[in-house]
Amino acid sequence: MTHGDKSSGYDSKECLSIGQMSELTGVSRRMLRHWEEEGLVSPIRGQSNYRQYMHEDVARLERIAIYREMGFNARQIRALLDCKTLLALDELRGQRSRIQEKIQLLRKAANRLDRLTALAEGKSGNDSATTKTNQEDQYFSEAYERWGASRQWLEYAERKAMCSEQEQKKDTARLKNVESELAQAKRKGLAPTSDKVLELIDEHRQALSWFHVTPSMHVILGRMYVADPRFRRHYEQLEPGLAQWMLAAIETAARANGIDPATAKWE
To answer: Where is the HTH merR-type domain positioned along the sequence (predicted)?
Structure first.
């Protein structure tokens, strides 16, 4: 109904103020004003320029509220309010499809939140993996015990929660490739201070992709490769003496970045 339709011969005693309309419909005054700005409802103006609603506006506002609850925007609602049923069906079905898509996205987000929460709490990080092993669970538990209180653990959990198993395999393959190149470099007799090795060491640091590893943190990890029997055995299998050789290269790279390896910290 237009302003002209309402204003011709209206009786102010039969009209509702914005406060009365808000109380009657449960729609806040702020929202009533907003809907007016959007062109969804057109109250008339009384002699003092106050908004005056007709009783038939109640039904219109109820329809607006219904469509708002269903997620329609102002443009869509304006069209639906003046639309015959058959013409409205396409819009209604389209909105149903859009809502279903949002539901799927929200379910996916909820699943990732559950996984992130579980990882952050130190629960197994391989529950959904088809290649899960008890050894991996053991490594995960030990890592949580060592790093669980750190900022990097949350960063690790975030990335692992977002990555598919295929993406995780890709990250693992990238790290293995760099380790293989480092083993070949040592086998060829390259010094840990050479430019080529330092380039590979930087690639190794970046391949540790579960969280951002600074050169200082890389030194801490390099020492762990030497001190921890399992890490040392892993690198020894690639090339004898590789763990110690890598630590020398990592410390050289740290110095090149202005870091004294003797005072390196987990940042």
So the answer is: 15-83
Handedness of CA 142, 146, 149, 153 (dihedral sign): negative
Q: What is the pLDDT of residue 35?
A: 95
CATH topology of domain 3-82: Multidrug-efflux Transporter Regulator; Chain: A; Domain 2 (1.10.1660)
| Residue 45, beta-bridge partner list | 51
Q: What pLDDT, on the 0 to 100 scale, is given for residue 46?
A: 78
- Residue 255's pLDDT is 97
Question: Alpha-carbon torsion 137, 243, 199, 254, what sign?
Answer: positive
pLDDT of residue 139: 75
CATH code that applies to domain 116-263? 1.10.490.50
State both tokens at 164: 């598919």
Per DSSP, helices labelled H in the chain are 3-7, 18-25, 29-37, 56-69, 74-81, 85-120, 134-147, 151-162, 165-187, 195-207, 215-227, 229-238, 242-256
Tell me what pLDDT residue 47 has: 76
State which residues of the chain have pLDDT below 50.
Answer: 1-5, 7-9, 128-130
Q: Which residues contact 90 (CB under 8 A, 6 or more apart)?
A: none
Which residues, at least 6 apart from 37, have a Cβ–Cβ distance to it below 8 Å? none
- What are the domain boundaries of the chain? 3-82, 116-263
pTM over 0.90: no
| Within this chain, domains 3-82 and 116-263 share the same CATH topology | no
Backbone angles phi, psi at 52, to 5 degrees: -130, 125
Chain mean position to CA 62: 36
Residue 59 in tokens: 């039904």
Gap between the Cα atoms of 110 and 104, Å rounded: 10
Question: What pLDDT is recorded for position 202?
Answer: 97
